[in-house]
Every structure is written in C-alpha cells, then in structure tokens.
C-alpha cells in the first residue's frame, strides 16, 4: 500500500510538469499576440493606409476582448476545467491569427485581432487554476512567476525574431504560421492536459499537504458578487491596470516607433531594446514571486517594485526622452521591465483574500485590471501623437503622449499602499 502510494506521488510530481508545460507553451502564444502589433506597425500602416490612432485601436482590440473575457474565463476554469477551456481558446486564437494574416482590409484585421483576443484570454486563468490543483500552496506565487517568465518568451519572440521573420516571409505569412502552431498546441492540450490529479487516479495536493478542503459546486453568480464586493479585491486590480497598461503600451505598440523616430535606431535595434524590457519583466516575475514567498509578504515587495517602476518611467518621459546617450537605454529598459512585475503579486493576493473555491473567478476579476489598462492607454497615446505631431517636433510629441503612461503607473503605485497583506495565506475566513 505504501509502495503504491509512493508510486502515485512520484507520477503526480512528474506528470504535473507535462500539464503545466503544454499550458505554458500556449501562454507563449498569448504574449506573442499581445506585443506583436508594435513591431509590424509600419507594414500595417502601409498595407491598410491607417493612422496612429487606428493602430492604437487595433492593438487595443486584443485587450478589450481579453478584459471582457476574464470573468467568463474564471467561470470556465471553475466549471468545465482547464483542459477544454485552453483547448478551445488556443484553437480560436489560431483561427484568429490566420484570419488576421489573410485580412483583405482593416475591418477583417480587426475581426481577426478580436478572435485572437477572445481565444488567448482564457489561458492564464486556466493555468492558475491548474497550479492550484497540481502544485503545493507554498509554490503558488513562485509558479505564477515562472509561468509569467515563460509567457514573456512569446513577447521576446514578438520583437527582434518577429522583425527577422517578417523580413523573410512577410507579416501576413508570419501570423498565418503562428496560427497553425496554435492549432497544434490546442491538439496537444486536449491529448495530455488533465484538470486535476484525480482525473488520473492520483492523490490530490490538498491530501498530500494534509489540508481538509471542502470541494463544492460553487454558485457562480453568488461567488462573483462576493469577489466584487470584497474591497480588498480592487487595489490589486488598479496596480495591475496602471503598471501593465503602461508597459504594453510601450513594448506592444509605441516603443519600437518611439526609438526609431526619436533616437534614429534601426527597427532591429529598437526591437532589441523592447526585448530587454520584456526579458526584465520575465526575470522580475520569477524573482518577486520567490522573494515574496520567502518573506511571507505581498504588500511590501509590491510597493518597492512599483516605486522603482515609477522612477524608471519618470526618467524615460521627463529626462531620457532623446536627450542622453543611447547606452543608458538598455539598463533603463531592463529595470523598467523588471520592476513592472510588481503586478504579478496581485494574482496571489486575489486568491488569498477570497474563497478558495472561487480561485478562478477571483483571479480573473483582478486580471481584468491589466487588460483594461492595456485597452485604454494605446489609443490615448495614439490620439495624443496624432494631435501633438501637428504642432510639436517628434521628440516633444512622444514626451507629451508618454506622460499618460507615467500617470497610469503613478496611479498603480498609489494603489499598492491599499493592498491587503495576506502573509501568503488565505485570509478569506
């Protein structure tokens, strides 16, 4: 009996990496689409003859879809499970990417981008749900950070590698290729991912940890209302909106053109700077999760990282806007990305201040914040650029436009002081 139990435990601890690994690869696709528009901005403007404001709206289409789908994503994760949720979502993302690549006009491109946003929107919440079932409680923030790191590799692919790929096969074929890769990942997800260890007749994590968990079918509407009414849900929402909205506005839409137009960089060199920022976020996501778990604190690390992020944006917007040596930009971009990871602790906080049976719903509500920021800011910056470029030089135009990003980060920083400290434990009761 003991030997059989040890065998099952060993299988659980090994197979969970297959489950997580496939979902993490799907998350790479999520980040690719999140940041890809900024790199192909020039090609899209030429192909469809559109303005900066339209580019901003095209980029935002992904985030609006993602934001609207967050609560449904949590409901799906808590009801039909991660396996079918991610399978269907990744398949939709593949279809949307192919449609975007084939788009004969800007209207169809918007539709393709919308379908992509709907498809990829379900992946991260499903991963968090899977981590709750397959990983120890003490590993949650660390695994969330590692997941963010892997996902950010998709953001890195959407920078210099995408520039090279587009240069070789064109922007249309590049998105069609990513679409077919997404379809393959959807098939792998259906074949190998399982919602819980019990689906494979393996012991649950709660059983191994000696926790008594009352598994019950939740009342979705009641749980959603309870999460929304919880005043401690919202500070993390705002932190995520402020910091992430500014970050994706830079790396996903306006950063490459800012560096080429203000600093005179080549497209590849500009993309490399965005890659450094994305890499900074990826590394920071692992670091902050580990340090938070080790300290058994959520609030203090979030405040320190948010303050660092605010300082970086102040340097970028008010001091470093085309006025000093370019060599400073690489470390600045890295630290800016690294400190943006403050928002990743909001996911753990959401789980720890709400009913554990509604983990998918609580994290999805907080997750909406980041994509609200990502949806609102790019068009605002695009409209500002269209407006100020008529009366100011290009450097001053970007400075005025990026001031909106600085304000966004400042709001997120202020909200970090209102976050409820959980000491890395569920305090819902």
TrEMBL record:
The keyword Membrane belongs to this UniProt entry's keyword annotation: yes
UniProt main location, coarse: membrane
GO CC, any one term: plasma membrane
One protein family per Pfam: MFS_1
Keywords linked to the UniProt accession: Membrane, Transmembrane, Transmembrane helix, Transport
GO MF assignments: glucose 6-phosphate:phosphate antiporter activity
Biological processes per GO annotation: phosphate ion transmembrane transport
Residue span(s) of domain Major facilitator superfamily (MFS) profile: 19-423
InterPro entries in alphabetical order: MFS (IPR011701), MFS_dom (IPR020846), MFS_trans_sf (IPR036259), OPA_Antiporter (IPR051337), Sugar_P_transporter (IPR000849)
Compartments where found: Cell membrane
Membrane topology: Multi-pass membrane protein
Record field: transmembrane: 12-36, 48-68, 80-100, 106-128, 140-162, 174-193, 232-250, 270-288, 300-322, 328-347, 359-381, 401-419
Keyword Transport belongs to the record: yes
Gene3D superfamilies: MFS general substrate transporter like domains
The protein's name: Putative sulfoacetate transporter SauU
Native source organism of the sequence: Alkalithermobacter paradoxus
High-level lineage: Bacteria, Bacillati, Bacillota, Clostridia, Peptostreptococcales
